[in-house]
Amino acid sequence: MGPLVPYLISNEFNLVIALLVGIGFGFVLEQAGFSSTKKLAGLFYGYDFTVLKVFFTAGVTAMIGVLLFGHWGILDLSLIYINPTFLWSALVGGAIMGLGFIIGGFCPGTSICAAAIGKLDAMAFVFGSALGVFAFAESYPLWEDIYLAENWGPVLISEQLNLSKITFAVLLTAVAIAAFYFTHLIENKVTKRQTEVTKNKRNNYAIAGALAFVLIAIVAFSPSKEEMIESRVSSPKRHQEYPFKEVTSDQLAFEIAHNFHQINVIDVRSPEEYESYHLPLAINIPLEEIDDRKWEKIFKQKIKANYFYADHDSVAKKAYLLSNYAGKSANYLLKDSSFDFRKLYSNIEAPVANASKEVMNSYNYRQKLAIDMEKLVEAMSNLNKPVPIKTVAAKGGC
Amino acid sequence: MKPKPYMNPYLAGVLLGLVLLLTIYITGRGLGASGAVKSVVLEMVSNLAPEHTANTAYLKNYAENNPGGPLKDWLFFEVVGVLIGAFLSGVISNRMGLKLERGPKITNRTRIIAAIAGGFLFGLGSQLGRGCTSGSALSGMAVMSFGGIITMLAIFGSGYFFAYFFRKLWL
C-alpha cells in the first residue's frame, strides 16, 4: 500500500524518484506550452486559456486518482501530505504571487521549464525568484505575524464546505468542465476567430468527461477495499466455514515452552485486558490495530507462526482472517479463551491423592510446562537488561 | 525546422495529473518548484555568511531542518529533473534556442526588468504562502487541501485583478 516512501523505498532512493518524476513533470509542462510566457499571460487577457485547461485537468485527474487509490486500498490517505492552511499567509502570499505572475509572465515551475529551452526572460525570472526568496528570509521578522497567523492545520476543503469528498469531487469536475466550455467561447471572442472543435474531438472530450464522473461514481457506490475486508472477516458464515487451524491450550502451551522462538503469541484483546492477564510471552495487538503499519512485519514474515487468542471466538477469528489479508504468515487459532488457558496453567491445583493415573499424568505434564513457561518469561524479561558485573577490586600481593 | 505544435491541453493535463498521482503514490507528497529555489538560495547564503545565518531566524531554522542542503533535498532533485525533461521536450519539438518573448509594445530591456521583478515577487510570495502554483495550488488541489485551494484562488484572483494595470507589458 502506498505511499511507498519510506516503507518500500528508502529516503535515499527517493531522490532518484524525484529526478524521474521531475523529468516527467518538466516534459509535460514544456509539451503543453508552459515554456511560453505569452501563453501563460494569455490566461489573464483571455486570448489563450491553455494554462487553465492543463492545470484544471491535471488537478481533477490527480484528485480523482487519489480518491480511487484510497478507495481501492492502494494508497493510505491518512499518510499523504496535506498542505496546511495558514489563512492569511495563503491569501497575502497568493496575492503577491499573482502580481508577480502578471508582471513576470511565469511561475517558478514554468520559468524553470522555459529556462531549460533557452528563454532568456525565464532565466531572468528564476534569478528574480532567487532574490525574492532571499529577501523573504532577510525580512522574515516583518512577515512573521502573517506567516504564522490563523494556523488551521491540514484541513480539507470538503470539511470546510461541509461536503463529502465525493460531492466536492463532483462539483470541482463539473466546474472544470463548465470552465473549459466558457473559456473556449471567450477565447473565440477575444481572438476573433472561430476555432470549431471537430466532431471527433468533441466525442473524445465527452467520453473523457463522462469517464471522470464514472470514476467518481465507482468511489461513491462500490464498497471500498476496507469495507469489503471488514464484511468478509466479520461474517458469521465465514467464521463457521473457514478451515481455521486450531490448537488447544495444551498444544499452545507446549509450543510456548518448547518452540517459543518459532512463534508469536498474539493477544488481540484490549490493552487493559492484556494487562490484567495474558498468556506467557504473548504480545498485545488489539483487533482495531491489526492493519496498523507498525505491525506489518509480524503478519508479512514467514519465519514465525502466529497464534491468535482472545476471550471471544469471533474476535480471535476476525483477527486470524484479517492477518490472512495482511500477509502470508502461518496462522493458528487458540480454541480456548484466555480464561481457559489461565485455569489450566496458572496456580494448578494438585489433584486429590487417590486420583487416577491419567489425571496425575496430565497434572504433572501441565505443571512441568507451566514451570518451563515461567522460566522462559523470566529469562526473556531479563534479556534486555544489562548483565550485572561484579566489580572486583585488584588486590595487591607481595 | 519549424517547431512542432504544442500538445492538446487536455491530454497534457491528464498526463500531468498522472505524473502528480504517481508522485503522491510513491512519495506521499506532491510536486513543487519554489522549494528548490529556496534550498539553493538558503544553502548559498549559509555557506557565504555562516554568522549571518546563525543570527537570522528563518535561515537558521531552515539550516537546522535541512542539514544536507540541496543535495539531500527532494525538490532540488525534482527540479533538476524538470530541467532535463523540459530540455528533452524542447529538443524533440524543435523549440530550443536563446530567445526572449515579450509583448509587442515593450523593449527587451523592459521585459528582462519585468521578469526579474515578477520573479522577485513570486519568490517572496511563495515563501509567505508556503508554496507556489505547483506545490501549493496544483498539489493542494489533488489532495483537496483547503490551504492549497485558497492559495490558488488568491494567485489567479490577484493575477486577474492586476492584469488591467499591466496590460501594456503584454498586449
Automatic annotation (TrEMBL), chain A:
Matches recorded under SMART domains: RHOD
Pfam families with a match to the protein in the record: Rhodanese, Sulf_transp
Keywords: Membrane, Transmembrane, Transmembrane helix
PROSITE patterns: RHODANESE_3
Protein name from the UniProt record: Rhodanese domain-containing protein
Domain named Rhodanese: residues: 259-350
Organism the protein comes from: Sunxiuqinia dokdonensis
Record-annotated membrane-spanning stretches: 12-29, 50-74, 86-108, 120-143, 163-183, 204-222
Keyword tRNA-binding part of the UniProt annotation: no
